[in-house]
Amino acid sequence: MLPLLFIFPVVHYSAFNILEFIMYMFLPFLIALTTALSALLGKKRVSYFLWWVLLVVTILSFIHHSTDSLNLSF
């Protein structure tokens, strides 16, 4: 877990939480890019696995953001 601190310096070691890591908005795009690259390279099992991971991360992101109320004033 310590090498992640150098890759993602925003996350503090004491407050590291996997849900906070999942909710970064670059993560679904990074997984989608990796999925597309693995599909282009012919790695069928890897691309299917990453597609399922992308689906789970997207659903978790939707649940995380849909439970907040919008403070709109017109």
Explain this structure.
The protein is an all-alpha fold. It has one domain (2-66). It has helices spanning 2-7, 18-22, 26-40, 44-66.
Number of helices: 4
Total number of beta strands: 0
The first-to-last residue Cα distance is 45 Å
Oligomer: single chain
Number of domains: 1
Ranges where pLDDT stays below 50 over 5 or more residues in a row are 1-9, 11-15
Fraction in helix: 55-70%
Beta-strand portion reads: under 5%
Structural class: mainly alpha
> Quick check: average pLDDT?
76
The radius of gyration computed from the alpha-carbon positions, rounded to a whole number of angstroms, is 15 Å
User: The biggest beta sheet, please?
Assistant: none
Q: Return the string of H and E elements.
A: HHHH
For this entry, give a set of tags.
about 70 residues, mainly alpha, 4 helices, about 65% helix, elongated
Question: Helix and strand layout, with pairings?
Answer:
Blueprint lengths: L1 H6 L10 H5 L3 H15 L3 H23 L8
Helix pairs in contact: 3-4
